[in-house]
């Protein structure tokens, strides 16, 4: 039986449980809090910060392979562990091109993938010449590290706001580096989950359309309504990226589709991804099982849908509260035909926090019907709040 170490104990690690059980894999989790979701499913738990390299050393000594649930890691510190025999998948050489969003953009551009215009923004080059390179406002300001669910990302409408935001972010104890990029007036946001195994086998899931609100994903529609040509273009992007790095594991690739039909890569995450949660209940093999298959040297599974389509809706926090389980709302949502609700067991709610999700299998690809179901779920979930 293989033992896989997972750095991070949130819902992404928690959702690896079914795949691990099916494949006969034990999960050992490094996470900072005993209340984190994955503690409940782990064979063993190391309670330590995500970037605690000494704790990761213990994890690596106890496991054949170590993987990542999030990007809050210190590559420099982990490199020493590789020299001592630790096996990380994805490898640190892969992560080194991805974790810093500016370096990720540079790498994608280097291998010929389409990305928005961008520049690194630091104190030394803040001024007219910085955003002039992007030609016009609005622009997008992003923290180069540790941003997720809209945190660290700002849409800037004018030069004064840019200066204010940068000034507010300059803290004596925490200097931030930023990426500045052109604002893309996209027609739709898309995403695709793709995996590559140790042997070079690649599996690509159906491309999905995502809908964001306040830069947090609210809904995912699978598959996206796209031409065969666009599907081929996006799959080619995924293959080019995976092959260029000889990457092992699963990756979430977020994209913009412009009104002119052009596809641009927004961001790539070196892990399982929110846009792929529908795969747990709608696909032959989930993204979580697929990731374990990929990193453990097993044959990849079938990524195809088990139904004509699927809808995934995130159940987001809309209040600051502790100990609430929202049971009545969850029970009502679970009564929707072909609905599968996953509750992460988090002990605290706050606005925008992902507390769970629901996937509904669809008998057809009628978008109006899918939108109506999404609205039904959200009307139940947010019925007791003013959260919009």
UniProtKB/TrEMBL annotation:
Enzyme Commission no: 6.3.4.18
Pathway per its UniProt entry is: Purine metabolism; IMP biosynthesis via de novo pathway; 5-amino-1-(5-phospho-D-ribosyl)imidazole-4-carboxylate from 5-amino-1-(5-phospho-D-ribosyl)imidazole (N5-CAIR route): step 1/2
Q: Which GO terms describe its biological process?
A: 'de novo' IMP biosynthetic process
- Tell me the Pfam families matching this sequence: ATP-grasp (PF02222), PurK_C (PF17769), RS_preATP-grasp-like (PF22660)
> Could you tell me what reaction this enzyme catalyses?
5-amino-1-(5-phospho-beta-D-ribosyl)imidazole + hydrogencarbonate + ATP = 5-carboxyamino-1-(5-phospho-D-ribosyl)imidazole + ADP + phosphate + 2 H(+)
Concerning its family, UniProt says: Belongs to the PurK/PurT family.
Under what name is this protein listed?
A: N5-carboxyaminoimidazole ribonucleotide synthase
Organism listed in the record: Chroococcidiopsis thermalis (strain PCC 7203)
Q: What lineage does UniProt assign to this protein's organism?
A: Bacteria, Bacillati, Cyanobacteriota, Cyanophyceae, Chroococcidiopsidales
């Amino acid at each position: 039986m293989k033992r896989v170490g997972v750095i991070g104990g949130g819902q992404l690690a928690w959702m690896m449980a079914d795949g691990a059980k099916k494949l006969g894999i034990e999960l050992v989790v490094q996470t900072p809090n005993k209340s984190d979701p994955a503690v409940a499913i782990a064979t063993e738990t190391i309670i330590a910060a995500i970037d605690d390299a000494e704790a990761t050393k213990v994890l690596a000594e106890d496991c054949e392979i170590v993987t990542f649930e999030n990007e809050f890691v210190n590559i420099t510190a982990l490199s020493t562990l590789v020299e001592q025999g630790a096996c990380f998948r994805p490898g640190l050489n892969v992560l080194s091109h991805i974790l810093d969003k500016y370096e990720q953009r540079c790498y994608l551009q280097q291998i010929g993938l389409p990305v928005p215009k961008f520049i690194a923004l630091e104190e030394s080059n803040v001024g007219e010449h910085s955003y002039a390179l992007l030609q016009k406002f609005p622009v997008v300001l992003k923290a180069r590290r540790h941003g997720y669910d809209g945190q660290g990302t700002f849409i800037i409408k004018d030069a004064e706001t840019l200066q204010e935001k940068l000034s507010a972010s300059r803290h004596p104890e925490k200097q931030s580096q930023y990426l500045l990029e052109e604002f893309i007036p996209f027609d739709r946001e898309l995403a695709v989950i793709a995996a590559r195994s140790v042997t070079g086998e690649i599996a690509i899931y159906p491309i999905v359309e995502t809908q964001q609100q306040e830069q947090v994903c609210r809904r995912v529609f699978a598959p996206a309504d796209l031409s065969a040509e666009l599907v081929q273009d996006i799959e080619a992007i995924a293959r080019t990226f995976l092959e260029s790095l000889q990457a092992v594991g699963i990756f979430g690739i977020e994209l913009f589709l412009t009104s002119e039909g052009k596809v641009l890569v927004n961001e790539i995450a070196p892990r399982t991804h929110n846009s792929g949660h529908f795969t747990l209940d709608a696909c032959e093999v989930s993204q979580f099982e697929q990731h374990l298959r990929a990193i453990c040297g097993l044959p990849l599974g079938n990524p195809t849908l088990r139904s004509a389509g699927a809808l995934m809706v995130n159940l987001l926090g809309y209040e600051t509260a502790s100990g609430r389980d929202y049971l009545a709302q969850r029970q009502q949502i679970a009564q929707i035909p072909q609905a599968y609700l996953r509750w992460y067991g988090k002990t605290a709610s706050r606005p925008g926090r992902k507390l769970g999700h629901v996937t509904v299998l669809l008998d057809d690809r009628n978008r109006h019907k899918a939108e109506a179901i999404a609205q039904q779920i959200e009307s139940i979930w947010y019925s007791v709040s003013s959260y919009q």
